[in-house]
Every structure is written in structure tokens, then in C-alpha cells.
Amino acid sequence: MFRSTSRAWAAAALIACVLSCSKGEKAPPADGAPAQSGAAPNGPLGTATVTGKVTFLGKAPENPPIDMSAEAACKAAYPTTPHQPIVVVNPNGTLANVFVYVKTGLPPDARYTPPATPVTIDQQGCLYHPRVFGIMVGQTLAIKNSDQLLHNIKALGKLNRPFNISQPTANMTTDRTFAATEVMLPFECNVHGWMHAYAGVLPHPFFATTGTDGTFTIANLPAGTYTLEFWHEQYGTREVTVTVADHETKTVDVRYGTAKKG
Questions:
Q1: What average pLDDT does the segment 54-69 reach?
Q2: In this structure, what is the dihedral angle of CA atoms 91, 97, 103, 109, given to the nearest 10 degrees?
Q3: What is the domain range of residue 193?
Q4: pLDDT(226) > 90
Q5: In total, how many domains does the chain have?
Q6: Alpha helices (H) along 61-167
Q7: CATH classification at residue 41
């Protein structure tokens, strides 16, 4: 079931947002998710960049354990009891799997053709990889099963047509595309109820997912003022406004968490 982005018990808060003119590091992928909008679609691109990191304040909540006793093939992949990767706090105190995208600010007549390169979601170790990712409208989603057992992937689109695909054997790949903007579009597996993933489907390439160092980069923006939305499956959405000029890099640092600063 798709989790609400506004759970009452989470006590999530945006503690600070800092804007400065400095370069940030490029984020490595989280579970293979694209770290920035580098797909090279056709459309009105620019020379501005927004980069930054998402820091987590307070003690990270314990993720629910997964009982894989009925799936020996998957259980063998984990030396200890696996947990659902809902809140992934990196060793440097940053938060992974935060989807960041340009919500407003692009010219209303801007049109982007999706790249030919597909985005891949893999079913491996009875989990989806990546858990959170972005994809353009019309871009191919390659759905792969790397496990030696039955999986299905169920897309619970509200603005896009839902689908439910069965993949009974390993190394199967099925392609799908999405026709409408939808942030976020959830996926689940009917065979393994703990398997969840989320896709941000956008008509443009200006999105990123925080990785194992909690950073993100959105490059090739035209000069302008933009609203960035940050989305996390547990802690919900936050918005930040940033203005960038041609050839300028702005840094946006956002803090989520369960404790107040200081």
C-alpha cells in the first residue's frame, strides 16, 4: 500500500534551507538511481546548475524487518535480518532516496523529447532497485527480474494507466512507458508485500535522487527562478525557491529530521 507522505507520528520538519553560490559534489546513485538529470533529451537547455544535499537531523527511526523465511533464494542474500529501506540515513548524516525536481519555473511552452536510453528497475534480493527514481514522460522503463523466483510489478498510477506484470523466471525484462506527469507513482509486488518503489514521472529532465552521500545535482537549467520540490516517502514534500543566472551554480541544502537544530 502506498504510504502517506504526511504520517502524523513522523514529526518530520524542514529545519533549514540555505542558498549559496558554491559548487556541490555530484551524488552517486542510490540503488542505481540516476543521480542527476544527465539523460540528454532534446529541448531548451541552459547553463545553470542547482546542487546541494539533504541532511537528516536526529535519530533515524528503525525500519520494519522483513520476514523472508518463505523465500530462501532471497534470504540467503542477507547476512542478517533485512529491513525495508524506508528511511535510509547515510554514514555522513544525509538522507538517501529523496526525489528532487523542478516543480515550476520552466517556460510554459518548453517541450522536451525523452532520451532513447531506458531507465531500469530491477527486482533483486526481493527488493526493488532503485526504490526511488525519476523518468521522463515517454521514456522507456525496463522492468527486470534478477531473482530465481516469481515476481510481479504493479504500477498504481492515478494519472497513468495502471498495470500488473508477472515475471516468473530470472532475467526477464518487460518495457513500459508513461504518458502523463505524475509525482509520485508507486509500485508494489503482490507476491512480496514489502516490496515498494516510487517513480517521479516528469515532462522534463530536471530531476535527481539523493544517493549514498545525500547530494543531488540538477544541471543544464535555463536561467530563471524555480520552485524545487523535495519528496520523501516517510517525511513528505518540501519546497524551495532558487534563482540562477547563466553559467551560475547555486547550492540548496535542506534538512529533514526528528529533532530540532541545536
A1: 94
A2: 120
A3: 8-257
A4: yes
A5: 1
A6: 72-75
A7: 2.60.40.420
